[in-house]
Design a protein that fits this description.
The structure is a homodimer. Chain A is an alpha+beta fold. Chain A is built from 6 helices and 11 strands. The longest helix of chain A has 12 residues, at 187-198.
Chain lengths: 280, 280
């Protein structure tokens, strides 16, 4: 299970058992994170609501990062950008304080991971800009809602992620490979998944590849670069979606003196409904 | 080239060279068929307009055939059903006379092909009911309009069609295999093709299968059951759509005393615009 504070007075069911998770409001999840009671994975929490990847950067790099996102909309779908120095993101939830409301953060100095705190108030700078990017939890929920099975969820694993041979479009210091998630699906489900995820461009949208992993530079599906491997059966196709780890990889490569992200799986839970993101 | 009448006073460019075909109105194509000047393939003619598969049956079988179509909407998307005995289909074109306006017909007796006339006026019965079903030309045009290449069109061939191991849902005497068309596409185009064809449920809609042909009972892609083989390259996926030959196969299997269809590729050209069929 996920790391939880010892003083867990009001339990928040964390983790990957998405089907059996009790309903939570986004504000309850954020409050639990804010109070330090919860620093675990948010998969399955407030599952009708949009969760987001977080990137926090000094303002001097904001324009480059925005251009990076604009040039790579599938891996980097921007849901919100904060005002410089402001910890609020009122478009995603009136009470959000981005310094405290993510269950766990990662602090990067010169491209090196140096800490995983549950709160970044002490690190906050008056020039910090917050970026929240869409996350595959939203489209996975749309697939689950259609009765589809996703193996990594059934098996309680993180989704398998791979660095591809496709380069993301660079902007300023931000460059790196397109990172993808992979979900094995039977052909009919793969077709249905293209239809469903096409409706959600703000959370990575349609797949970027189906079939032979070698064509996008993936040598071995059993050895993901991030997350956990899952088996692909003979009657299944591996289906690949652009992944929000792409900007994190670019951030590491940029070697900025200071940057902050969420910790993997520990997302910002917003008040937006997944359904609000549907483009048709 | 396609069979053309010797007295071809007003040429109608037939055949498969879809990109270079001059614009024609649907009424011009029908008039050319009606007058006997044209009995060729309609691929690429009036290419913004919907073309249809034709089935003509005695009224006593109409209800069973309607149920067959209702139960198999992907291979049998009904665009129009005529009134018993009436050769008009005003919903598809004010002037349509279904006895003359298809360039070439096939006459089936007890499941055997007995004739391929250019006119069925002499065979028409007061109890005949006409069924017009959507055809893949409409979604192929949508794919071409997006800049996609389709190999069978580039090579001037008919699309490859295969009988699958999937049974169509039976109704009355109508039963048989699901027949599919196959187009080889690179993964990114396959994903885009799912998106585009999903918008056109009235002309077969999204693919029914992608990838391993053996999973749907196809032993050898180089040996189609109908149409012409095309090569599938190593960096391509075979993509399979439900096909309007499915009802023809069911019709043959039903061994009705008399039934009439269009001849392959010689479709009814309607006044409907392809774009009018888009569901979103």
């Amino acid at each position: 299970m996920h790391p939880m504070s010892a003083e867990q007075s009001q339990p928040v069911a964390g983790g990957l058992g998405r089907r059996s998770t009790p309903a939570q409001t986004p504000a309850q999840v954020r409050q639990a994170a804010r109070s330090g009671r919860f620093n675990g994975h948010t998969s399955g929490l407030a599952d009708r609501h949009v969760q987001g990847n977080l990137v926090v950067l000094p303002a001097e790099h904001a324009a480059d990062f925005l251009r990076f996102c604009q040039r790579n909309p599938k891996p980097c779908p921007l849901l919100a950008v904060g005002e410089p120095g402001q910890p609020g993101l009122p478009g995603l939830g009136a009470d959000i304080d981005i310094r405290t409301d993510v269950p766990r953060y990662r602090v990067w100095r010169h491209g090196e991971l140096v800490d995983e705190p549950g709160d970044i108030s002490a690190l906050w700078q008056s020039d910090f800009v917050s970026f929240v990017l869409g996350c595959s939890f939203s489209f996975e929920q749309a697939l689950l809602d259609e009765g589809m099975r996703l193996r990594h969820i059934d098996e309680g694993r993180n989704v398998a992620m791979f660095r591809t041979s496709t380069a993301a479009a660079a902007a300023g210091p931000f460059a790196g490979p397109l990172v993808v998630t992979m979900r094995p699906l039977k052909a009919a489900d793969a077709i249905r998944a293209v239809q469903i995820t096409s409706r959600y461009p703000a959370v990575h949208g349609a797949p970027v590849h189906i079939g032979d992993p070698a064509l996008i530079g993936i040598a071995d599906l059993s050895r993901p670069d991030y997350g956990d491997a899952v088996v692909v059966h003979a009657d299944e196709l591996p289906v690949f979606w652009a992944c929000g780890v792409t900007p994190q990889a670019a951030l590491v490569q940029a070697r900025l003196p200071l940057a902050i992200t969420h910790a993997p799986g520990c997302m910002l839970v917003t008040d937006l409904l997944n359904h609000q993101l549907a483009s048709f």
